């Protein structure tokens, strides 16, 4: 990825690589030494954008949340922070910091900064909408964190277009710092974002930063009808796509393009997504350096019109 210029994230001063490294596996399916190697290889390959959340990996037995942030923080302390590296994290799902009340947002941000070992979080997301807390309260709390120098920019994750618009309008009416990016579920197999979110992002100058771009691993091509079982925590959900005719059409199209270009299927799937309107960077995780190696091509892979059209048509509902 070294020869590709980072992209601007919305109207912020952040510049990010086309491939964003997801940190959900760090401290979970990737132990600390392996996580360090993945992070090293990602940066060596030109990556400049690491994403995590305070709730990672509270779902795992014996985990309390914050494991991923802690691993990333130790890596930053051990290696020294690479120039231009953007670090994003999220609030609302840590067992001790649930929801988006003002008090919780402030306390969670301090806890995340401590685990990461940073003075300021580059991009701080509201991870999930909190219907129990007024949007005005959450929007003001995030804006106060910017004013305090504890975060640089604000993001929203898993919000509907109507709620995003409402948050933006509150910020405009009250002179608050507004979100610059939105993280939606978006892939060749999940294109619902194109109906309302993409037009909103283009209208308001928001960067889209999709997650699940590989459809839980299905779009890497390792799941095949009649193929061997895959050892992965996501295997059950990924394998469900084998019963979906559209998913199998997409897999065939990915095979065609990947073979023609000489790259992995997963890289093709993410490259298609990276070039969709309003998308600044696409999120993918890797639990070992071998998985990451197949994805690094995303940083410089620009699909030709024929390949893009083939994938777009195959993935149409």
Automatic annotation (TrEMBL):
SUPFAM superfamilies, per the entry: NAD(P)-linked oxidoreductase
The species this protein was found in: Nocardiopsis lambiniae
Gene3D superfamilies membership: NADP-dependent oxidoreductase domain
Superkingdom assignment: Bacteria
Protein name: Aldo/keto reductase
Lineage summary: Bacteria, Bacillati, Actinomycetota, Actinomycetes, Streptosporangiales
One Pfam match: Aldo_ket_red
Domain NADP-dependent oxidoreductase: 18-314
């Amino acid at each position: 990825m070294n020869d590709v210029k980072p992209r601007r994230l919305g109207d912020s001063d952040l510049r990010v690589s086309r491939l964003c490294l997801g940190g959900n596996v760090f401290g979970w399916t990737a132990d600390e030494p392996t996580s360090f190697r993945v992070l090293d290889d990602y940066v060596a390959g030109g990556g400049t954008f690491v994403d995590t959340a305070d709730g990672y990996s509270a779902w795992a037995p014996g985990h309390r949340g914050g494991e991923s942030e802690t691993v990333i923080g130790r890596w930053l302390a051990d290696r020294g922070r690479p120039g231009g590296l953007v670090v994003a994290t999220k609030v609302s799902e840590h067992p001790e910091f649930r929801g988006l009340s003002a008090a919780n947002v402030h306390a969670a941000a301090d806890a995340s900064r401590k685990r990461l070992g940073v003075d300021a979080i580059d991009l701080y997301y509201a991870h999930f909408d909190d219907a129990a807390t007024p949007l005005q309260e959450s929007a003001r709390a995030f804006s106060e964190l910017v004013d305090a120098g504890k975060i640089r920019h604000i993001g929203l994750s898993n919000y509907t277009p109507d709620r995003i618009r409402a948050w933006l309008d509150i910020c405009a009416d009250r002179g608050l710092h507004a979100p610059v990016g939105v993280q939606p579920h978006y892939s060749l197999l999940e294109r619902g974002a194109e109906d309302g979110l993409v037009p909103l992002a283009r209208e308001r100058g928001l960067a889209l930063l999709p997650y699940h771009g590989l459809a839980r691993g299905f779009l890497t091509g390792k799941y095949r009808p009649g193929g061997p079982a895959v050892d992965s925590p996501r295997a059950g959900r990924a394998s469900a796509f084998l019963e979906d005719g559209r998913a199998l059409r997409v897999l065939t199209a990915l095979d065609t393009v990947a073979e023609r270009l000489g790259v992995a299927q997963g890289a093709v799937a993410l490259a298609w997504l990276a070039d969709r309107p309003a998308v600044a960077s696409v999120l993918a995780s890797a639990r070992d350096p071998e998985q990451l190696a197949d994805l690094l091509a995303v940083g410089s892979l620009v699909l030709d019109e024929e390949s893009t059209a083939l994938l777009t048509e195959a993935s149409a509902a």
